[in-house]
Amino acid sequence: PIEKEPLHAELLEVFDDKNRIPTVSVRGDFLYNFWQDEDHVKGIWRRTTWEEYKKKDPEWETVLDIDALAEKEGKSWVYKGARFLCYGPGEYRRADRCLISLSEGGTDACEVREFDAMEKKWVTENPFYIPNSKHTVCWVDRDTLWVGYDYGEGTMSPSGYPLTTRKWSRGTKLEDATEIFRGEPTDVSAGGSFYYDKDEKYAMFYRMATFNDIEYYYWFEGDKDLTKVKWIASSCRIQTFKKKVLIMPKEVWSFGGKVYKAGSLLSCDFETFVKEGHLDAVFLGAGARTVGEEPKCDIQILYEPANDRCAYEGATDSRDYLYVSSLENLQSKITVYRFDDATNAFILEGAHEAENCQTFSVGGAEPNSTNALFASSSGFLNPSTYLYNEVGGLKGIKNAQSLKSSSSWFDSEGMSVTLNEATSKDGTKVPYFLVRAKGNDENSGPKPTVLNGYGGFRINSLPSYSGSTGKAFLNHGMNFALACIRGGGEFGPEWSDCAKKENRWKSFEDFNAVAEDLVKVGATTPKQLGCIGGSNGGLLTGAMATHFPESFGAIVSQCPLLDMERYVYLTSGSSWINEYGDPRIENMKPKILAWSPYHQISERSVANMPPTLFTCSTADDRVHPSHARRFVEKAHKVAKDEAKAKETILYHEMTEGGHAGAADNKNRAKIKTIEYTFLRTKLCNAQP
Asked: How far is residue 380's CA from residue 398's CA, in Å, rounded to a whole number?
């Protein structure tokens, strides 16, 4: 049994470590944390006080025991989070009612129950309850929710997400809630969000036409109808800070006679922009203002990329500060602004840059009421650190004190991390991180190496500390590499967008270029090189098995998309058309199938395929497990030597875990042991 493997015990020790960082959410007088270990397999939702949390071993109070709940109700519950009611100005520290999301087996679909955190029990008098579903929900007040739910025909999108928002009052039936917003039938999803931002009340709605195209609407108190947020491209994203709107254009944006770079962060007055933006939107020909007249919207540039190796990552805040996160040639940078109420503008305080090959992030502990901040840092060889400061701002970052640090799971002495570049087929320089194990250097000869990547949905691949990677690979003299390929967000929107749809090839070519460069620099050989990736990364590694089999000695594809002709019909697949393209369109279909891993399966491709393991979960309702099931079945069927194919192309399916692959630490250790043992066995036994 896999549980008897020494690696299983080592990984379970990492996952169950009682000294790992208990990250928290501050609600009222308490700090809340969800925790799993050997004594709490499904986990406990618990809390402590500030005074206790600052101690090395805090005392925790259990609020909700998921193991006990699962045993009592006879269901395999997976905790999916809690949404607290915000009572608004003057009552930010009041935190009693919340909505608890529970998933059976780890699916994306959840049921929602109302919970009294102060009493530590379910609300029984006219409680809010949403049956198991893919839904949207937010609090408006103690007796009102906005809910997106499957109310019948026309209320769910082709992707399986809600298209309507209804106002649901306590004591009434969910199906009788009043509809207040509806998207279009072809949308990926549509919904609403009600929240307070530093005493400002926001009632926002959105239509997500595609995964990347969103229209925003706002309800001004007293108005009968919603006001559409115009003058921005559908690829733009917005968020708020007090009375300001923060605008993130993903494309070059012309407004008010000025041109703003793609990947910038801009700020202006929210109400002015929404109500009077048409006076500045001369590029649309809508109500052009008189030449020489000052623009209505005073736009402030908070960030713009200096070059094509820079990217905006996101913005977090506290009561008076805005923290703008960016990557400057893959180096984490936090630019800090203080908001000045007198001038109604952001004042630059300065910036903090992370150490080389480490990541750094900042967020407000209680953004509506204090300037306290949490910060975290991590690196391949640097255990994660969780820091805190009450003051906030740049001074707070510089003087933040370490609250918690994760355990060190391997001796990093003698190991090294470098940032390298490979050259892709079209000449593009593709960066990758290489972590060499102790004793491995430029002169030590090739060693077994595992390459990881993702390359999609503008998601970044960045350094982080992994005890499991260290235990499984680095401790055994193996190297680890992380590729930052096109499709990801490491260098901004263009870096991502150029590898979409029929151009997905570019992601695959980038990853293969990194594989070839690892061989070129002497770190490994093709037979000693393995790759691993999950979800979109599973598509990536599946493509390596069919398109570039000669570059690898072993491949692991986790929860993958593989059949790119039928993906639009499976679970949430149609929501990703903007990323992968639509195979139902006649002239696009052959271009997509040209790179679709499933459609490359043939007697010849199976014969050339290196040892490959596919893993997934029965409970995955995001990427259907049939992708991996059918790939393996087809590969075995078309093989000239079926017996050999069954030994080379392997499959393992977990029953629970959803798209995460596992729902608890025992199963995480199990699936990781299966995957990592497969890679270690194939790569370490390979001849250079």
From this structure: 22
Query: Considering 496, 535, 575, 596, which one is annotated as catalytic?
Result: 535
pLDDT of residue 290: 42
pLDDT over threshold 50, residue 98 = yes
Report DSSP state, residue 431: E
- pLDDT bin (cut points 50, 70, 90) of residue 291 is very low
Print the SS3 string covering 647-676.
HHEEEEEECCCHHHCCCCHHHHHHHHHHHH
Residues in CB range of 647: below 8 A, 6 or more apart: none
d(CA 547, CA 562): 13
The Cα 342–Cα 319 span in angstroms is 15
Is the full-model pTM beyond 0.85? yes
Task: Give the C-alpha separation, 456 to 372, whole Å.
Answer: 34
Asked whether 187 and 204 are in contact (CB, 8 A), the reply is no
659 catalytic? Reply is yes
Distance CA 18, CA 354 (A): 27
**535 catalytic per annotation:** yes
**How large is the angle between the packed helices 6-15 and 665-684, nearest 10 degrees?**
130
Summarised one tens digit per residue, pLDDT across range 227-260 is: 999 888 899 999 999 999 999 999 999 888 889 9
The string of pLDDT tens digits covering residues 476-517 is: 999 999 999 999 999 999 999 999 999 999 999 999 999 999
- The neighbouring-strand residues paired with 238 are 247
- At residue 361's C-alpha, the angle toward residues 355 and 366, to 5°, is 145
Residue type, 575: S
Catalytic residue among 40, 599, 627, 659: 659
